[in-house]
Structures are given as structure tokens and as C-alpha cells.
């Protein structure tokens, strides 16, 4: 049968997209008339108001439209289940105004009924941005479903991994999450001390009780305003390309009616600085302007009327919260707000890494690759069990094996000792073979290392000596040049001990006098007795203790952390040490090559050649400190990725603030800085510790460099660690 050709002048109306609607026009009109009642039920504070509304609508719908339908009992039961779901979805989909609504649209800042969070939802709130996100991204990249062209991981994949990680979390973390859920459900988005108890409202007139409740709701809206403003600024930048500042001021109930100033900003310069960082005085200027305007625009009676009981004494002219001063690679804007802080976020990274390993993969004993396993049936080895890759403390600066490893060569003894002792001769820090250098082993050694009872060549033993090898009785024997390390009781050549010495380096007291510094200087310079500082320092130290307790550390890292924590006076420095621990745990047995020796501070170079012993360092004089700082900044700039260095940047300056904030996805984005182990970024923190010891934390240059080091370490932790390399066979076994 031939088809009839449609008339070219007629166009058929397009069917509505989304499939055939399940309602008739009469049913849609009937349901639409009930939308105001549905919204009212949602805003109601009565428990079960929405469920009651839906049951009534369902009964009325059946009476109105199904009264003539003939169905069996089974068919009716199934039809009612389908109708229940359809009605719920219909009201959900039609609850909001359409985009065609005329007139300006404003944000709905009304207080909504709160629901108790699920455990894994609260887990996401606390840990996603700083801990879970980089871990889940690594998980996604290793997933068979991974698609490089997909801009973001699927939401379902993210939620599934978070739920599995949450199920494997420790009881301590789950207790914190449970407490967070309770606090979120009960809290009014401000401290309890700022409010009169709700129960006390029963003792006042109904009108006063209503005013208090309205002010509590107002405070909840005010506390949510900074985040709303920030989202608005981000949306404006994404859609219009506009950047700038949004500022509001008004009376805050928890401040006794005093003014609170709220900022929202978006946009950063090429170097990663926000508008407030580029113009430090802009914030205070805007505060004065908007507060002056608010005093003229908002009557004093209205300000006092919004105050909550017990907050009158807190009334101030301006209330502005602090925000982080150092830029983040993931944020292009900022808002002045007081967000709910994540609990021990920085200390949780390593634990989540271990959970990810348990859920997704593990390294085999030969370190040959990654093997996927079932998350619930994994029998994971301990931190060191079953791993034969090289340890961080078995590497020298040029990647050679230290004593205690298999690889060795010809030449004279070198200076590094292992935990149990060393038997091979190893190249020193620069790859050259020294005649003799010094690091005593804990239990004993044979070549080039002195033990507790005697030595064989080039090292002074426990009782003292002059050159060559000296045993317990002071007898001189053997050939070789003088050793460089004296013990606790005496020594002639190399480094003098605590009580005396004749050549090499002076003892502690003489060197301190020569440098023009004494222990009293340390107390006056670094012993900050401010109660607020001491409390903050104690909290950071407590967080560090918790971080260290999460997972066993190798001996070299324990010793390194103990030495770094000995430098007092800076909370920022302690936070950098925490990031350093996270980074070393992240790379584990993949330390990579050492940081480049070319250009590093001479004082650090000498300390490394002397075996990295704490007593081999003496407090820096002013001249030595200035030289070290100049060399440290130049070295730090030279090992940055090229993308971080601005055009025409002066490498001899101390301008860390001009370094560009970059986004990185792999360790290859940090070709010179992704260096773990004793010869890695640890050396930078040692230099910062010496700076802190010699001059204290008052220098802005010191603080900026410490914050930049922390930022770099946080990004190194966020990218996946490289797969472990297979261990090369020993030359002696060939």
C-alpha cells in the first residue's frame, strides 16, 4: 500500500518529551490545586505532616478517579503501590517554580526542617574535601570503569566507595561521626552559650518566646549566608566571567544585636592570591564603610530587638570570622565564615589510605605491580611484612644503597649505618668514596662503622682515640684517616664530644659562646608564654601524637620527627611536620631519587656529610643564618615545577607569595620535589627548624615559606604514589 505524502504546509505538534504522562489533564489540574497544601506540610514542624498529607491525597485520588474501576484484590494492591510512588514523585517534581516564572528570583533562606544524617553522609561532610577526595580519585583511576574522557567520577561510584570506607573505619572515628550527627541534629548553628535554653522560654510570655525563636531562626540563616554568598560568587564567575567581592552587614542575634559583616569573594591572580591577599587593607576599609552605612540604615531599636538573652555583653561594632590565609589549589574563591571543622582531618589521610588498600588493592611481595582483590577477604600484611623493596633509610643522596643493603662497591668505609649494622662499603652523599666517615651502628658493624665494643677502620670508638682505629683499650691499629665522630666520653679528631675535645669542632658551650648565643637567648626568643599560643601548640602536638599513633614508622622517620619537633615556637612549623609524616607514609617504600644536591644550603650539606647527627649541628650565628636563608630560598625555587615560577621571577629573592598555585594530578607533575626518604624533602624541614631555632617564628618570610612547604606536601599527598620498582639484584650475586 502506497504511503500518502503529508502536506508540506502542515507541521504536526511535537509530543512532549519524557514519555507519556501517567495523569490525565483533569488529574493534573486536581493535583496542581493541592501544591500549596503540600508546601505547607513541608514547612510544618509537626512530625509526619507530609506523610499524613500524602495518605489523604491518595485516598481522595482513589475516591475521585478510581471509584468506577473494577479490579481484583491482588490487582488493587499492586495498583495502590504504584500510585503511592507516582504521587510522591509527582509532588517532588512539581514542588519548585519553573524557570519561566516572571520576576526576579531570590534565594530562599528560610529555616527548613532538619533531618538526622546517615553515618556515611556525616563521614562525607567531615572528611571528603581534605581526606577522602584524593583517595577516591586514586581508586577511580584504578577502576575498570575508569574513562579518561569523563570529567568527573560518577556520583554512584563515589558514594559506593565512601560507604565501603565508612564500614571499615575504626570505632574511634565512628564515635566521632556519631557525635557529629547528634551535634548537627541538635545545634542551632551557633554555640549553646550564645542562646538561652529553649526550655526557659516556657517561663516567659508567649510573645517573648516567639521573638526568641524567631531570632534563633534568624541566626541560623545568618550562619548559612557566607556559604550561600560564596556559591553565588562562583556561579557568577563561571557563567559571566566576573570576579569581585560581595559584602553584607546586619545585626546578629548571637552578638547581642551587634553588627556582623559577611564577605563573599571569587577569583584569583595568576600567582593564586585572592583580592584580600592582593590588597590587605581592602577588608578593613570595606568593614568601616558598610558598618557606617548600617548604623544610619538600621535603627538601634531593631538591632536590640534581635538580641538573644545573655548576649548583650557581647555586642560589638563588627564581627568578622577569620579565613585561611594560604591559598588552596582547589578553591578559587573564599568567604568569611565559620564552617564546621573536620575532626583531625590532616591526621586521617594515612588511615584512609590503608582502608583503600584493604578495599581495592595491595602490592605483592616482589613489588611488581598492583593486584585487585575483594575488599572483604583481603589478608593484608603489616606496614613492613612481606615487602622487600628498598627502605627509605637505605638510600644515600644519589640513590645508592646504605650499609645493611646488598649493593656495595670498592673503596673506603662510608658514614651511614643501618639499624642492625652494615657490612658493605657505600658511596657517600655526593657519590664519592671517602676515606672514612662516621655513623655508629646500634648493635655492631664490620666495615667502616664502629660498634659498641670496637671498630675496624676509620672511626673513634666508645673510649676515645686519635686516628685510624682505636679499640676499647685505646690501642691504635690499622690504617686510614681520622674518623669524624666522637662518642659521649671523649675523642681527639673529628667532632669533639659533650665534655671535651682538642680538634675538629668545639664542644657545645664553646660553640655557643663563639656564635654569640646562649641558652638564655633560646628562652627569650622561642619560649612563647602566651596562654592562647600554648593552648594552640598543645592541641597541634596532641594531633601530632594521634597522627604518629595511626601507623608504625621506620626508625629513621621516628628519629627525624623527634628532631623536628624539638624546634619550638611555631604552630605552622608543627603543621608542616604533620604533612611531612603524611607524605612519607604516602610514598612508603617508593622514596624516589634524592633532592638535588646542587644549590642546597652549605650548612645542610655539611650536616649530611657528618652523618645527620643532631649533635653535629650547632646553632647558627646571624651571618650563618642569613647565608643559609638566601641559599634555602634559591634552592626551594630551583626545585619547583616550572609552572610555579612567574615570568621574570627573581630567583635570588625571598618572595614565596609570588609562586603560582597549580593543579596537579600525578607525581610526575613534581619532577624534582616528589622525593621521600632521608634524602628527600626532610632536608628542607631541617633547614626551617634551624631557622626557627636561631631567629624564632616572627619573620614573615619564615611563615610564608613554611606555609608554602605545607601546601606543596599536601599536594604531594593528594596525587597517587608511583608503583614500587622491583629490587635490583646485588652485584655480588651475579
UniProtKB/TrEMBL annotation:
Lineage: Eukaryota, Fungi, Dikarya, Basidiomycota, Agaricomycotina
The species this protein was found in: Pleurotus ostreatus (strain PC15) (Oyster mushroom)
Superkingdom field: Eukaryota
Region of interest (Disordered), ranges: 1-26, 318-346, 370-528
Listed Acidic residues bias regions: 440-454, 507-522
Biased amino acid composition, Low complexity: 319-339
UniProt-recorded name of the protein: Uncharacterized protein
Amino acid at each position: 500500500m502506497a504511503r500518502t505524502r503529508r502536506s508540506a504546509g502542515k507541521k504536526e505538534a511535537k509530543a512532549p518529551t519524557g514519555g507519556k504522562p501517567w495523569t490525565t489533564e483533569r488529574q493534573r489540574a486536581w493535583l496542581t490545586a493541592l501544591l500549596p497544601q503540600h508546601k505547607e506540610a513541608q514547612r510544618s514542624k509537626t512530625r509526619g505532616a507530609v506523610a499524613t498529607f500524602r495518605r489523604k491525597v491518595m485516598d481522595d485520588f482513589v475516591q475521585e478517579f478510581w471509584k468506577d474501576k473494577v479490579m481484583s484484590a491482588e490487582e488493587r494492591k499492586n495498583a495502590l503501590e504504584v500510585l503511592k510512588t507516582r504521587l510522591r514523585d509527582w509532588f517532588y517534581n512539581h514542588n519548585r517554580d519553573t524557570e519561566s516564572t516572571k520576576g526576579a528570583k531570590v534565594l530562599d533562606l528560610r529555616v527548613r526542617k532538619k533531618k538526622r544524617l546517615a553515618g556515611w553522609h556525616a563521614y562525607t561532610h567531615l572528611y571528603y574535601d581534605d581526606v577522602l577526595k584524593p583517595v577516591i580519585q586514586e581508586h577511580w583511576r584504578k577502576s575498570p570503569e575508569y574513562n579518561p574522557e569523563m570529567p568527573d567520577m560518577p556520583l554512584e561510584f563515589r558514594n559506593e566507595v565512601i560507604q565501603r570506607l565508612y564500614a571499615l573505619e575504626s570505632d574511634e572515628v565512628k564515635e566521632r561521626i556519631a557525635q557529629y550527627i547528634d551535634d548537627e541534629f541538635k545545634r542551632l548553628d551557633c554555640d549553646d552559650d550564645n542562646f538561652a535554653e529553649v526550655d526557659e522560654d516556657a517561663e516567659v510570655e508567649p510573645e517573648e518566646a516567639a521573638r526568641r525563636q524567631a531570632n534563633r531562626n534568624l541566626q541560623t540563616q545568618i550562619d548559612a549566608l557566607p556559604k550561600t554568598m560564596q556559591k553565588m560568587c562562583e556561579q557568577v564567575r563561571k557563567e559571566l566571567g566576573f570576579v569581585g567581592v560581595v559584602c553584607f552587614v546586619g545585626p546578629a542575634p548571637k552578638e547581642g544585636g551587634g553588627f556582623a559583616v559577611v564577605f563573599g569573594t571569587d577569583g584569583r591572580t595568576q600567582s593564586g592570591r585572592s583580592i584580600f591577599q592582593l590588597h590587605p587593607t581592602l577588608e578593613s576599609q570595606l568593614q568601616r564603610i558598610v558598618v557606617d552605612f548600617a548604623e544610619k540604615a538600621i535603627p538601634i531599636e531593631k538591632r536590640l530587638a534581635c538580641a538573644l538573652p545573655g548576649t548583650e555583653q557581647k555586642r560589638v561594632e563588627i564581627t568578622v570570622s577569620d579565613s585561611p590565609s594560604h591559598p588552596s589549589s582547589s578553591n578559587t574563591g573564599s568567604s568569611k565564615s565559620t564552617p564546621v571543622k573536620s575532626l583531625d582531618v590532616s591526621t586521617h589521610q594515612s588511615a584512609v589510605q590503608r582502608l583503600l588498600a584493604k578495599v581495592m588493592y595491595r602490592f605483592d611481595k616482589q613489588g611488581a605491580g598492583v593486584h585487585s582483590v575483594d575488599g572483604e577477604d583481603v589478608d593484608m600484611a603489616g606496614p613492613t611484612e612481606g615487602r622487600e623493596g628498598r627502605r627509605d633509610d637505605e638510600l644515600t643522596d644519589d640513590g645508592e644503597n646504605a650499609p645493611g643493603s646488598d649493593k656495595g662497591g670498592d673503596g673506603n668505609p662510608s658514614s651511614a649505618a643501618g639499624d642492625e649494622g652494615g657490612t658493605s662499603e657505600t658511596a657517600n652523599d655526593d657519590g664519592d668514596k671517602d676515606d672514612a666517615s662516621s655513623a655508629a651502628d646500634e648493635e655492631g658493624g664490620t666495615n667502616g662503622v664502629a660498634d659498641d665494643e670496637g671498630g675496624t677502620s676509620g672511626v673513634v670508638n666508645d673510649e676515645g682515640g686519635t686516628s685510624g682505629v682505636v679499640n676499647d683499650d685505646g690501642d691504635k691499629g690499622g690504617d686510614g684517616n681520622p674518623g669524624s665522630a666522637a662518642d659521649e666520653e671523649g675523642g681527639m679528631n673529628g667532632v669533639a664530644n659533650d665534655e671535651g675535645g682538642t680538634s675538629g669542632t668545639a664542644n657545645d658551650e664553646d660553640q655557643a659562646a663563639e656564635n654569640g648565643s646562649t641558652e638564655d637567648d633560646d628562652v627569650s626568643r622561642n619560649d612563647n608564654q602566651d596562654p592562647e599560643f600554648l593552648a594552640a601548640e598543645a592541641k597541634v602536638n596532641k594531633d601530632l601524637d594521634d597522627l604518629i599513633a595511626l601507623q608504625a614508622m621506620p626508625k629513621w622517620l621516628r628519629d627525624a620527627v623527634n628532631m623536628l619537633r624539638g624546634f619550638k615556637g611555631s604552630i605552622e612549623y608543627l603543621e608542616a611536620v604533620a604533612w611531612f609524616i603524611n607524605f612519607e607514609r604516602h610514598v612508603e617504600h617508593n622514596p624516589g631519587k634524592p633532592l638535588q644536591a646542587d644549590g642546597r644550603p652549605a650548612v645542610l650539606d655539611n650536616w649530611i656529610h657528618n652523618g645527620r647527627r643532631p649533635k653535629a649541628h650547632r646553632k647558627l650565628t646571624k651571618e650563618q643564618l642569613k647565608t643559609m636563608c638566601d641559599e634555602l630560598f634559591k634552592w626551594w625555587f630551583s626545585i619547583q615545577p616550572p609552572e610555579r615560577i612567574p615570568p621574570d621571577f627573581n630567583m635570588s629573592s625571598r618572595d614565596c607569595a609570588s609562586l603560582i598555585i597549580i593543579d596537579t594530578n600525578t607525581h610526575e607533575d613534581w619532577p624534582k620535589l616528589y622525593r621521600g626518604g632521608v634524602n628527600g624533602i626532610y632536608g628542607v624541614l631541617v633547614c626551617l627548624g634551624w631557622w626557627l631555632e636561631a631567629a624564632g617564628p616572627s619573620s614573615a618570610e619564615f611563615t610564608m615559606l613554611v606555609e608554602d612547604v605545607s601546601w606543596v606536601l599536601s599536594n604531594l599527598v593528594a596525587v597517587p604514589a608511583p608503583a614500587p620498582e622491583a629490587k635490583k639484584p646485588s652485584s655480588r650475586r651475579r
